[in-house]
Amino acid sequence: MFLTPVETLYERLPAFILVLFRVSGLAMFGPLLGLSSIPVIVRGMFMFVIAMAVWPLVPGIVFQPENWIGLTISVTSEMVIGAGMGLILLFMFTGIKMGAEMISQQMGLSMSKMVDPASGLDVTLIQQIYSLLLTTFYILINGHLVLIHTIADTFKTIPLAAPISTEPIMRTLVNVLILAFQAGIRIAGPVLVAVFLATIALGFISRTMPQLNILAAGFPMRILLTMFIMITALGAAFDIFDEYIVLAFREIGGLFYQTS
Questions:
Q1: Which residues of 40-74 are buried (b: 16+ CB within 10 A; e: fewer)?
Q2: How many helices (H) and strands (E) does the chain have?
């Protein structure tokens, strides 16, 4: 007996709903996809389009829950998978922005903040610069496309509605937080060292020339020195972006190999 297109669609509809929830978890927390500046309708349409593209490629028979409890568990599992992938990259982005905040504090510009249209939060000018650079670099290396391709591959390793353990996900998030902190320190490291040495030099100068106003002379010097170090170390900053974004994708791949 052949099924009509309507009957086929009805039988495959639970699979599409679960695929949509997994994609939605990624789109809510992932970089670029989860920006608050993007209208909710646009994000919803984007999630729907990705789910429609992935849906025919989902292998295997979908487990259909028999009650609301089973359905809730299945939907939650799919959301956790997508949200875990998005949070891993989001934490890495946040760690690099934390390094930019350290640079702002050393420059004395931490009090001058502006509204970030992407996140809607108050950020410093240096944070905004590094955020734009990181986002541009992420797009240039097709990180968003790799992330979409990765979530499509998860349907091969983790079937729809399959039970998952949150322990490896939490352990991976903790590892990513450590890596994100390292990334922030490496971004701010050259500036921190240069400002520290400049502060020591100003201390010696103030001892030999008490009539010199160190606060008046030191503030513009810190700004100029920090800007010079930032421009000089820009190539190294891009290398750090590349290294830690790749590490984030490796953590995502390792997580789903473990979970599967």
A1: eeebeeebeebbeebbeebeeebbeeeeeeebeeb
A2: 8, 2
Can you tell me which residue has the tokens 């000089």? 232
Calpha distance 252→168 (Å, rounded): 11
| Tokens 């292998």 belong to residue | 59
pLDDT per residue as tens digits for the range 193-203: 888 888 888 77
Q: What is the pTM of this model?
A: 0.77
Classify strands 122-124 and 113-115 as parallel, antiparallel or unpaired. antiparallel
* Cα–Cα distance for residue pair 23/55, rounded to 1 Å: 11
Task: Report d(CA 226, CA 220) in Å as an integer.
Answer: 10
Quote the CA–CA distance of 208 and 83 in Å, as a whole number: 58
Query: At residue 114, what are phi and psi to the nearest 5 degrees?
Result: -135, 160
In which band, very low, low, confident or very high, does the pLDDT at 237 lie, cut at 50, 70 and 90? confident
Residue type, 202: L
pLDDT tens-digit map of 2-27: 444 444 555 667 778 888 888 888 88
At residue 212, the pLDDT reads 67
pLDDT tens, position by position, 130-161: 888 888 888 888 888 888 888 888 888 787 77
- The first and second tokens of residue 129, run together, are 């610069």
What token pair was written down for 222? 């810190």
Q: What is the DSSP letter of 23?
A: H
Residues 223-251: b if buried by 16+ CB within 10 A, e if exposed: eebbeebbeebeeebeebbeebbebbbeb
Encoding tokens for residue 110? 């931490």
Instruction: Specify the pLDDT at position 113.
Output: 64
